[in-house]
Specification:
This protein has 367 residues and is an alpha+beta fold. The protein has 10 helices and 14 strands.
């Protein structure tokens, strides 16, 4: 029987504004001992982080799971591109076996009590750092992710499992919440992202959660990378949803502008063109900032995990969708601008004809 010491960290990520001034947020949150954390591993140098996020400790609370009271640790990570990641860390009551840890994880992953804890902390945190948030507003889109972190797992003799033994763990009930055995083909398809670096560690990634076995408790680099990738995913999803909502509104606005009577027809699209230009500029700037927030410079362990997480979260597909919608907005802008130019030219031509006719009439009357 395997003995497990570990915890579950539930992440709830929210877009709270267009951008966050991290230096100002540091000052506003000074009572919570904020810090700028980077990966501590040597291979972390392969990851370039232009503006490291802030980590804030928010205290502790309790969570009841199956009538058992668990003390939880609350913290947050704040990203400059407007994302706040709330973390709820829950530990089993004591050392347990693998089956007990699996059941604990299954009951915790979508526990409604976590949502209540997070909402209360989110409101307080946003209020404390409001002056540092540009265009503050909590978006409807959010991301949930859970990391099952194990610091010690031993066999019945108390010997820590090797990487080979860890690879043989039945993780399907924990990560996929499946009770029936899966086929070998299904396992390969659903659990393709498996990584190990030392002889006693393991990282397994899925769309909704991950298992991280790392004996050094202070080493949270994999969690850092997964949280960063989720924050980037949230921003891509948010701006994709924004553009999805903008396109129908844009078509209605174009029809309304064309139906509007104006002394100067060429000016009827002025407000709409200004709005389009601002929308494209904002979306392009933020998406570029999100993608450039963390860059991979070499193919080492942390970089491979990060790249796999982006692939798993379909980051390229989200970015391609955003690019297509931005292209539609740019084409619409060019079309409306050309139409406005044509209307202005037509108005000018009419004015010239009127002036010429007026001159002829005046000349005839004088004659």
């Amino acid at each position: 029987m395997l003995s497990v010491i570990g915890s579950a960290i539930a992440y709830r990520l929210f877009d709270v504004g267009y951008a966050i001034d991290l230096e100002r947020a540091l000052a506003l949150l000074s009572a919570s001992a904020p810090e700028r954390v980077r990966p501590i591993r040597g291979e972390g140098q392969a990851l370039q982080i232009s503006n490291p996020p802030i980590t804030v400790w928010l205290g502790s609370d309790v969570l009841v799971v199956d009538e058992v009271v668990h003390e939880v640790e609350l913290s947050a990570r704040i990203f400059d591109f407007g994302v706040v990641s709330l973390r709820v860390r829950v530990r089993p009551p004591s050392a347990c076996d693998w089956e007990q840890f699996t059941r604990f994880g299954q009951r915790l992953e979508h526990h409604p009590g976590i949502t209540a804890l997070v909402q209360a902390q989110l409101e307080q945190l946003c209020e404390r750092m409001r002056p540092a948030i540009e265009r503050p507003a909590v978006a409807g889109v959010h991301e949930d992710y859970t990391v099952f972190r194990i610091t010690r797992i031993t066999d019945e003799l108390g010997t820590p499992l090797t990487a080979e033994a860890l690879a043989a763990l039945d993780v399907v009930p924990l990560l996929l919440n499946e009770t029936r055995p899966l086929s070998a083909e299904a396992r390969r398809e659903l659990l393709p992202h498996r990584f190990t670096y030392y002889g006693d560690d393991l990282a397994l990634l899925t769309w909704e959660n991950a298992l991280v076995v790392e004996p050094r408790e202070e080493d949270t680099d994999l969690q850092y990378i997964l949280e960063f990738a989720n924050a980037q995913l949230l921003e891509l999803r948010y701006y994709d949803a924004q553009l999805d909502a903008e396109l129908p509104r844009l078509y209605d606005a174009i029809e309304a502008a064309r139906a509007r009577r104006s002394v100067f027809p060429g000016r009827r699209f002025a407000a709409l063109l200004s709005r389009l230009q601002a929308q494209v500029a904002d979306s392009t700037e933020l998406v570029e900032r999100v993608e450039n927030a963390l860059k991979v410079t070499d193919d080492v362990y942390l970089a491979r995990v990060y790249s796999a997480a982006l692939e798993l979260f379909r980051g390229r597909a989200w970015r391609a969708g955003i690019d297509r919608k931005l292209a539609i907005l740019r084409e619409t802008y060019a079309m409306l601008n050309s139409e406005a130019q044509a209307l202005r030219s037509e108005t000018l031509e009419i004015a010239i004809v009127v002036l010429i006719v007026g001159e002829l009439v005046m000349a005839f009357l004088r004659g």
